[in-house]
Specification:
- This protein is 13% helix and 13% strand.
- By secondary structure, it is α+β, with helices and mostly antiparallel strands.
- It has a domain of 130 residues.
- It has a 4-stranded antiparallel sheet, with no helix packed on it.
- It is built from 2 helices and 4 strands, in the order H-E-H-E-E-E.
């Protein structure tokens, strides 16, 4: 009886190990369309914008590059962190065209629309609690040290959203320097040439 039990356990372990080799890490796919990110300007048919059919999946250079080479770091606009600055989607980078996507006065409410093309059961963007990292987003997603933008209503804590697309209203706190990007995940410039 004991031999059969060990055989059964061995088969279970083999199946678990074999099954785990087929698992892969998944990331949500999406893009910011209002105001349009540098990677997604082409969707609005803006003259001079570069067509990037993969604008919904800038992966910080890929999982291996981000975590095994860059210690979890990601370029502020979703590029591989190890690339020389300015990285392709950063201001003055190879894919930046100096296109103004919107001008906003300090203290005004900014409508933001994010289109999620594949949520993989959700996304998790939020306001940072420690001034360095976005709640639920992982160490690579900063909101410019979490002081340049606030998600309204004020005092609202982080929420997980499981939706195909959603919109936010963001307000720049008074007295802060305008952010050049809302978050690395969204790669979203408020003012493309900023």
């Amino acid at each position: 009886m004991a031999i059969t039990s060990y055989g059964f356990i061995a088969r279970v372990i083999f199946i678990v190990v074999l099954s785990s080799s087929f698992l892969s890490f998944v990331s949500a796919h999406g893009y910011v369309i209002q105001p349009a990110s540098r990677a997604s300007l082409w969707r609005l048919e803006i003259p001079g914008s570069i067509v990037d059919m993969d604008d919904n999946q800038l992966y910080c250079g890929g999982f291996q590059r981000q975590w095994n080479f860059n210690d979890g770091k990601c370029g502020i606009c979703g590029d591989d962190y190890s690339l020389p600055q300015p990285r392709p989607y950063e201001n003055m980078g190879a894919r930046s065209r100096g296109i103004v996507v919107g001008t906003y006065e300090e203290g005004t409410v900014l409508p933001v629309t994010v289109t999620i093309t594949a949520s993989h059961k959700g996304n998790s963007l939020g306001v940072c609690d420690d001034g360095k990292r976005a709640v639920g987003c992982g160490p690579q997603e900063t909101f410019r040290t979490c002081s340049d933008v606030a998600i309204l209503p004020k005092g609202q804590i982080h929420k997980r959203l499981h939706v195909p697309g959603f919109g936010w209203k963001l307000a720049k706190p008074t007295g802060k320097i305008s952010p050049r990007a809302l978050s690395p995940v969204t790669k979203n410039p408020i003012h493309e040439s900023a």
